[in-house]
Write a structure and sequence with these properties.
Length: about 110
């Protein structure tokens, strides 16, 4: 794999096993049904705090108090009904997922 090392602006070559390349590539793929959103304008990361403080001052608003909501570890709201709770059961390795996908493609 060729890449540019921006520390010294040199093009370099990295050798790795195919499983590692697939693992790194899949880190950039979103799960099915998830949409990538880029914030821009006053919500962009580079200027969010500064712009929001300007907007609040012009609207004569006080900055909201930051209240941390503590979620129990390993529990999430159900994306389907939004009332139930999902609980973490186990962590599946990436190689198992890739092997399962390959087996499904070969069988179907």
């Amino acid at each position: 794999m060729r890449y540019t090392d921006y520390r010294d602006n040199q093009r370099k070559i990295m050798q790795m096993v195919p499983e590692e390349f697939i693992r790194r590539y899949l880190l950039h793929v979103l799960p099915k049904g998830v949409m990538r959103i880029r914030h821009f304008g006053f919500l962009a990361n580079s200027c969010r705090c500064k712009k929001l403080s300007q907007i609040r001052s012009q609207l004569a608003m006080k900055a909201p108090k930051k209240e941390k909501v503590i979620e129990p570890l390993g529990h999430w709201c159900c994306p389907q009904c939004e009332t139930g709770r999902l609980q973490f059961m186990e962590l599946i390795s990436l190689l198992k997922i890739v092997e399962r996908e390959a087996a499904l493609r070969l069988s179907g």
